[in-house]
Automatic annotation (TrEMBL):
GO biological process, one term: purine nucleobase biosynthetic process
Source organism of the structure: Sulfuracidifex metallicus DSM 6482 = JCM 9184
UniProt GO MF annotations: ATP binding; metal ion binding; phosphoribosylamine-glycine ligase activity
Residue ranges occupied by any ATP-grasp domain in the UniProt entry: 110-330
Name of the protein in question: phosphoribosylamine--glycine ligase
Enzyme nomenclature, EC number: 6.3.4.13
Chain coiled-coil ranges: none
Class of the enzyme per the UniProt entry, highest EC level: ligase
Gene3D superfamilies: 3.40.50.20, ATP-grasp fold, A domain, ATP-grasp fold, B domain, Phosphoribosylglycinamide synthetase, C-terminal domain
Short name of any one Pfam family annotated for the protein: GARS_A
């Protein structure tokens, strides 16, 4: 079977590497990813390079004549790349342009949750004017999360605590400047620029679900680590590491909470299909937080696999992952099951200095990786923002590598530390060694949150919250 994979990052490398020998892998991306190229060569496929947009994908489909397509990143989904496969009658793993709106627009996602009464929803207010958003924030008396109104690669989120609301003129001016910056991350004509949500707190986790339009199949949980630097400080990124397991859970999430989260995703897919009139095909994920307000609470949705969560989840699937993808694309997911490796997985992301604030500084550096040695100790390497140019590996400005190891987290941490020693570059590399090291703290935090939301549930207050703003709060 000929498969055309669209995308050029570590997530696509992880997907390509999971495909069994029955698939002949073709790739289309904006540069040559060395990890994906390894799979293409092994399966005797072909690597195509170009701009990932509908017109060039149409040309690639015409050239390759694939039996199936797999779309990895979100931006191609937003621009309707998966729809190009469907126009040709080719099964494709990837949400349609209309269905991918669940990720592209945070405002649409929130409004959908409220319209259909989906649990885990947060109160929000959207603003097309940056000035109106800044004015609202300066007057509001509660804690808030301020975000770009649409998908912005995990950037631009700012939390404002309630005590800041009544501070000095200088503080308010600083907040207004911050809001102005957030407003630059998403600027789609005719749509809100900023969304303001009530702030919640608790441990975060992600549930990915496969959907073929009729059958839903939940995958193991994962946890993403967004902040750039050690111990969770610094700017937010696309993700500096991830943990999954053991089994289908995480140590701080119960089986009941897993099932409740799955129910939220079920209701979300049903709502999406009612709004768009299109069956949802591909992966959908809830980026969740366990909160005292609801228990499982939606922070945002993905219309594809998260990255680096995919690198943590896919290696734990014992079944032929390509078979799961194929059954999803072709509408036969009812014949599939997921057998999960009981061991936990640990992912460390390695990035060039400059990421995420200065992509130019993080670009055009040579990097070397002894993949053989890393694999010999039981770990794996997925290549991200690294291009193969004239026999050299060259950074492209984002996360360069994802190192993955399965087993006891402490043992995996030691192996990943060793793996780092086999990576060289002509610039400083940044990575976090604390990924997965705070499980006990998160277990304790989850217990406190669990006591709160279960108490609220017994009293009938689940999801209810009070406004203490003199100006009417979020509504």
């Amino acid at each position: 079977m000929k498969v055309l994979i669209v995308g050029d990052g570590a997530r696509e490398n992880a997907i390509a590497s999971s495909l069994s020998s029955k698939y002949k892998v073709y790739a289309f991306s904006s540069y040559v990813n060395p990890g994906i190229k390894e799979v293409v060569q092994r399966t005797e496929g072909e690597y195509l390079v170009g701009e990932i947009e509908p017109a060039q994908i149409r040309d690639a489909i015409s050239k390759v004549n694939p039996d199936m397509g797999i779309i990895g990143p979100e931006e191609p989904l937003f621009h309707g790349v998966s729809d190009e496969f469907r126009k040709e009658g080719i099964p494709v793993f990837g949400a349609s342009k209309n269905n991918a709106r669940i990720e592209e627009s945070k405002v649409w996602a929130r409004s959908l949750m409220w319209k259909y009464g989906i649990p885990g929803r947060l109160r929000y207010k959207a603003f097309q004017s940056i000035e109106e958003a800044a004015e609202f924030i300066s007057r509001y008396g509660g804690s808030l999360a301020v975000k770009p109104a649409g998908q912005a690669g995990g950037k631009g989120v700012k939390v404002i605590a309630d005590i800041q609301a009544y501070l000095s003129k200088e503080k308010r001016e600083a907040m207004a400047k911050s809001v102005n910056e957030i407003g630059t991350y998403y600027n789609k004509e005719g749509e809100p620029k900023i969304i303001v949500e009530e702030k919640v707190d608790g441990p975060e986790y992600t549930l990915h679900v496969l959907s073929d339009g009729n059958t839903l199949l939940p995958l193991p949980l994962a946890q993403d680590y967004k902040n750039a630097y050690q111990d969770g400080i610094g700017p937010e990124t696309g993700g500096m590491g991830s943990v999954s397991g053991p089994m289908e859970l995480l140590p701080f999430i119960s089986k009941e909470e897993y099932e409740e989260t799955f129910e939220i995703i079920k209701q979300t897919i049903s709502a999406i299909e009612k709004e768009t009139g299109e069956k949802y095909n591909g992966a959908i994920a809830g980026q969740m937080m366990l909160t005292g307000l609801w228990g499982p609470t939606v922070i945002e949705y993905y219309s594809r696999f998260g990255d680096p969560e995919a690198a943590a989840i896919i290696p734990r699937i014992k079944d032929d992952f390509g078979d799961l993808v194929e059954k999803t694309a072709t509408g036969h997911l009812n014949k599939a099951k997921v057998e999960v490796d009981e061991r936990a997985s640990l992912v460390w992301t390695v990035s060039p200095l400059g990421y995420p604030l200065d992509r130019k500084m993080a670009s055009n550096h040579r990097i070397s990786v002894d993949v053989k040695k890393i694999r010999e100790i039981g770990c794996e390497v997925f290549f991200g923002s690294v291009s193969l140019e004239d026999g050299f590996l060259v950074t492209k400005g984002s996360r360069a590598l994802e190192l993955v190891c399965l087993g006891d987290l402490n043992e995996s941490r030691a192996k990943l530390t060793k793996s780092i020693s086999w990576i060289g570059a002509d610039t400083e590399l940044i990575y976090r060694t604390d990924i997965g090291s705070t499980m006990e703290e998160q277990i304790q935090k989850a217990e406190v949150v669990r006591y709160t939301y279960t108490s609220r549930r017994k009293k009938g207050f689940l999801g209810a919250s009070a406004d203490w703003s003199p100006n009417g709060g979020l509504w």
